[in-house]
Input
Amino acid sequence: MFLRDHAPDVSEEMANGLCLITTRCSCDYLAELYAFDEVMIRMRLADLAQNRITMSFEYLRSTSEGSEEVVARGEQQIVCMQRSSGLLEPRPIPKSLVEALRSYA
Output
């Protein structure tokens, strides 16, 4: 949904060989969730370098008192590659994606 809402042209680039490949991800669970818990996810840009994007996440449960409780923290790193003649080669992050991510820094 992020790409659709913030950098829709990236989908077209993906149809033309752009690959966004997860190279690393992690999640630390801090509290148990239950059925029907309302969970919000906050994303932050942790790093942006060459063809690599690292995002960090906080997963928060809404409480009945209106406050929030952090239930997990995670991180995901992706690289931008271009598929050409069956090979993958590094490529720069699309400009529209860089612009969309900068507001999350």
Notes: The radius of gyration is 16 Å. Residues 2-102 form a domain with the Thiol Ester Dehydrase; Chain A fold (CATH 3.10.129.10). The chain has three helices and five strands. The mean pLDDT is 94.
